[in-house]
Every structure is written in C-alpha cells, then in structure tokens.
Amino acid sequence: MPHSSSAKYDVIQPHFSHIYVEKDVAYHPVSKDIINCFSESRIIPIHHYKDVFSRAGQEFSAQKESQKLILAAGRPPFLYRGADVCPSFGNPSFYYASSVMNCIYNCQYCYLQGMYPSANLVVFVDIEKIFLEVELAAEKLSKGNSLAPAPLYICNSYDTDLLAIRRIIPLADRWLDFADTRQDVLIEMRTKSTATSLFSKRKPAKNVIIAWTLSPDPVADTFEKGTPPLSVRLKAAAKAVDNGWRVRLCIDPVLFVNNWEELYAGLVKDISRELNTDSIESISFGVFRMGKQFLKRARKVNPASPILQYPYILEGGVYTYPLEIRHKILSFIKDRLGRVFPQDKLFQT
C-alpha cells in the first residue's frame, strides 16, 4: 500500500540553545565562528563528543525538534569508500567525507535516524585534517597510474546538508576554497537548500558539482519536514547554472505514494519548465533503499512513519521495494526523464 501520512512533534526548545565544545577545539577558528552566531546559547565544555552524542537513553525524534550543536575534533579515518547503494556516476575512485554528522532537515526516509544514536549535530571543526587525507589519497591515486588518472571523487554531504547550514557552520565555503587548490579532486555537494548567494559571489569551480535533491511538493510537504518547496530549490539550481556552476539533479528516493505517477510526472515537467536541461550535468533517480540494521533502528525511532513501516523486501542486506514495484517506478521515471534529457545524462541508482 502506498504511504499516506507523516508524524508530527512539538518543539521543545529552540534549536542550538546549547553548544557542547570539546576543550581541544574550543579556540579553533571554526569553533569561534560558530559560537559567535549564537550569543545567547549556553556553551558547555566536554572532553569527547561521544560523551554527549553516544550516551544511552536518547530519543532521536524528540531531539530532532530541539537540536544541539557539538563541536569536536575529527578522528581518523576521514575518508570512506562510497557505498554500493550510492551512485558513483562512473567515477572509479569514489569516496565520501563527513565533516558534519546529522542534518537540520527531518526527512522520514533518511538513514541517519537509523545510523546515529542522537539527532544533535556534530561538527568536526578541524576540517584541515580531512583536506590533508584527501590530498594524500589524490596523490596516491596519481602515483598509481602512469596515464592521466580520473580525479578522486568525493561526496561531502551524505551525512548532512552543508549548504543548508553554511550561515552558521561555515564549512561549505572551506570545501570550495579547498577545491580551488586541488584540480585532481572532484567534489559533489548535495543539498535541498535555497543556497544562492554563495554561487553569485564566487567564481565557479569546475571541479565541484552542486547536486539538488528534488521531490514533488506533496511528497516534500509530507515526508521532508523543514525543506524548501520544489519551486525554490529549482530557482536555486537555475541561479547556480546561470552563474556557471556544474549542477546535478537527484530524484532520490522516488517514493511509492498515492498518485505517485502523477506527482513525479509533474516533477519532471517542473524541471523542464524551470531549468535549461541542456545545462544540467546529469540527473540521478532511484527508489527507497536502506540497510537492514539502519531500517531496524529507524522503525523504532519513528514507529508511525508509513515510509519506514512499509513491508519492504531484503536484498543483499538492503531493504527496498519488491521487484515488480521497483521496476514499475524506475521504468516510469526513466521514460519521463528521457523525454527531456539525453540518455547519457541519466543515472539509475
């Protein structure tokens, strides 16, 4: 049965009313920038971020309505191999990096609620450690190939939305500064935000792809709490294109909801109407999928969610729709996208 409704919660406290700071990074420039944004927040020194983030008895759903910030030092490893459920877009050296754990948005289908014990945001402020590991990996890749190697492909917004939080957590800008220094690294920054000012102020980086995740408004209104409307996301993507940035679109996950065919057909029409499709780098699409253990935990966190409680099937340790439904959805989306995009720009995930 298609999904139909979402859970509602009441706000308990203002977001970021408390900021926990590891003593070793209290004076880091990123810590100072963040703390300066919250003059009325209570600053609490801690020894290790896990003392707060990993403590027992936390309620992820309640915390999502009153998130706190935890400023921490990064611990290796800083780079992870891209998972099989994530698209590499043909890049053989595919990794992801996590400079922030957790997201300000509250999407019912998000795997983070099954991955982390807490909904609070952890910011690894000493981002220079991540950059150093990226540099070493890129140099190793170059030395290991006598021919011109493909760039090291890094996705840096799988566990958060760096562009959505850049006004309070200034790491997106630092990633772009880093990209300017390393042409042998290709960075994808995924978002659902209205980020526009950044793209008009900076010279576009040819080794950075900004990827907007898009959903029909009824889907976003029900299952993507706190996210901007589709029209605003499309305008942001259009502005990035107009300013010379490489832009990718992601319809992922496609959800098996009531009237899904009508909703997603309308989404494709909106895309073709609002954007110059010739200027779009690529577009990916895929259905709901979540690792076995993540879904098990997420169902406990949100027992009323029709997205999470759907009777998925397990394939290779990943829960997803039954093959017949999956084939129907993917065939439909591919056909609709193929009417406005060339086939070589379509990536099924």
Question: What does it look like?
Answer:
This protein has helices at about 30-35, 50-55, 60-65, 110-115, 130-145, 170-180, 195-200, 215-225, 230-240, 260-275, 290-300, 325-340, and strands at about 20, 40-45, 70, 80, 95, 100, 105, 120-125, 150-155, 185-190, 210-215, 225, 245-255, 280-285, 290, 315, 320, 345-349. With about 350 residues, it is of the alpha/beta class. It has a single domain (about 20-349), classed as Alpha-Beta Horseshoe (pyruvate-formate lyase- activating enzyme). It has an 8-stranded mixed sheet. Strand 13, helix 10 (about 260-275) and strand 14 form a beta-alpha-beta unit. The protein is globular. The model is unreliable at about 5-10 (pLDDT under 50).
Give a concise summary.
The protein has helices at about 30-35, 50-55, 60-65, 110-115, 130-145, 170-180, 195-200, 215-225, 230-240, 260-275, 290-300, 325-340; strands at about 20, 40-45, 70, 80, 95, 100, 105, 120-125, 150-155, 185-190, 210-215, 225, 245-255, 280-285, 290, 315, 320, 345-349. By secondary structure, it is of the alpha/beta class. The strands form 4 sheets. It has an 8-stranded mixed beta sheet with strand order 4-5-9-10-11-13-14-18.
